[in-house]
Amino acid sequence: MKKTFTMLAVAALTAAAAAPAMADLVVPNLSYRTGPFAAGGIPYADGFNDYFTLLNERDGGIGGEKVQVPECETAYNTEKGVECYEATKGTGALVYNPLSTGITYQLIPKVSADGIPLYTPGYGRTSAANGKVFEWVFNYPANYWDGASVAVKHLLEMNGGDLNGKKVALLYHNSAYGKEPIRTLQELAKKHGFTLAELPIDSPGQEQKSQWLQVRRDKPDYVLFWGWGVMNSVAIQEAANIRFPMENFIGIWWSGSENDVMPAGDGANGYKSLTMHGVGMDYPVYADLKKYVYDAGKASGAGDQEGSVIYSRGMYAAMVIAEAIRKAQEIHGTAAVNAKQVRDGFEQLEITEARMAELGLPNFGQPFAASCADHGGPGAAMIQQWDAAAKKWNLVTPFIAPDDEVLVPLVMEDSAAFAAENKITERCN
Amino acid sequence: MFYREAGEFKTSYVDDSQTFPIKFDRMRYYAVLVIGFGIIPFVINDYWANAVFVPFLIYAIAAIGLNILTGYCGQVSLGTGGFMAVGAYACYKLMTAFPGMPILVDVLLAGAVTAGVGVLFGLPSLRIKGFYLAVATLAAQFFLVWLFNKVPWFYNYSASGQITAPERTMFGIAVTGANTPAWAKYLFCAVVLFLLAWLARNLTRGTVGRKWMAIRDMDIAAEIIGVNPLTTKLSAFAVSSFFIGVAGALFFAVYLGAAEVGEAFGIQKSFLILFMVIIGGLGSLFGSFAGAAFLVLLPVLLKNVLVEGMGWPTDLAAHVELMIVGALIIVFLILEPHGLAQLWRVAKEKLRLWPFPH
Question: Does domain A23-142+280-378 have CATH number 3.40.50.2300?
Fold first, then answer.
């Protein structure tokens, strides 16, 4: 029995390690459709897959090359994420987008050594915005420190530009993800004179009673929230339970999807979150998606996530990746680009409003242009607010630009520390 | 026929007390060493190293460590994940504080630090037993994870609380960091595992191990015949924690490269290693290897069979995988409560009688 088991194992593992068809463009989708974070992972993966299906069905791929999107389940777990990376990198993978800050931290040194770009829109290591140090990592259009700064700017707006003496609590997922904004918020607290209380919530975050008890006792004026997965809906429910004024409760863009607010019902009315792109299905691209993907029965997953906030974000990420591949094909004059060429595509990528409109996403995201030194984009974000009666997110502000005066030195400091640790010499000089 | 003592004449006590008294066993052992050190390093690639061999080797070290404490000395521990975290953070602090120090020394010192912490948390074992000790070690698990999250000194004040292993070389070849070749990762872990397994084997069949087993079997009787419970229990905690600390250091530095305490060394890690020990077989070194192999390989195997082989959606495969692994664990425990090691023992007994069974 032992022998046959071993032989079976060897056969199966070899089959997995060999397999790839090298001809197509391969964009692995390290997704998570199981575990406590599946509520966010499923729509994202669906949006990501559906956009590439659309390109394949409508345009025959990118520049005539079909795109393959092999999926690998990570369950938001870093060990499984590493296994997925190793299993797929030999297939000619062009870019990784793991949708997990923890996995991103694991992959940054690995992709740098293997020469594969890593695209982490709105998550991951913030200081990767400094392209001088992080050659292979891109996190435009916005990152966590931008998000923290935009949230504080919104608070300033609400208070006529003065936050002196106010109390702000940061409620965060006790992981790399949740800890990212702390440094920025501390700096901003110094600058604007508010006090910052840090309340960590251990993963997966189903149990938050004690943190909300603390909120009730300390009575902060505002609560900023860095949550993900099941933790979001629990927090919003708890906030509703203690009657915390919802318009003073602001989540990062990962804490603002329909799945997060629906369970709390009317109690969630007025909850705010950041968003770095438009929401809803009023974009021409959905007509094409419906025609080529949904109605053709090729939708990814259960096909019930279309147009949701996180679905839109997965689609947005796929769109940027597709544009970067197109750019790489343009630069290098070949349709069958490799990972190194795609990196050039990412670095010289420019998304203009005209291009977005052409792609069927007018006024969806902010235009940006990357460069050798700038892998971070403009970092602006909007605030959306939940209307429980209409079951709909409404945008309440236009794009708010972050406070670069505070952020740039922090990015430089953090990336310089990484460069020193890893003996990286700055590029682009 | 060929698997028996008959015909093997020993003329010295050294021969008589060797680890593998039967020639066939000895040959098998040498064959495993030849394959492990002579063949695998030359054929291994990144996928095999990172998905299969390196985690297997590291979990085997951790399982041996826990087996010493739980299987040999009878002290139940649910703090394995926390102790692995101590090893990982100690290794990280040593690597960053003394960049010139050889990585092997870092790893072993990390083990020593963990041994100290283990002794500290082992002190309650002198008063409390069984379930109560399990709860006390569970407290250690949560306390240690909380500590590494709370005190920024441990992660060198990094913005995200992550620790990242800098590149360290051995004989000019990278062993940690992203530029490590697959074979170097594998070989480094394999050598450490070999040395530690050899140590464990010789400890458990000597005086120290016999004292542990005496305490496990009946502590009062052991005390009456002159086994000091204080030194015995604490030595079990120290040795066990040393192994687990080394495993944690390797897990962070060689395997993951970057880690976050809550996720990499949480309570589920403690349970995983406890399951390895239980499924493999309590009080058996072979069992530690078998249990680690079972729980590391099976999910990877199932994933590949279901997703790559049969083309199932990844979420369905992930759910079915959990169900199959869970069901297999239950089936194993019902059919063979003493673990895989007992199956192996029974097989050997049969082999001894073959081809003339009763």
Answer: yes
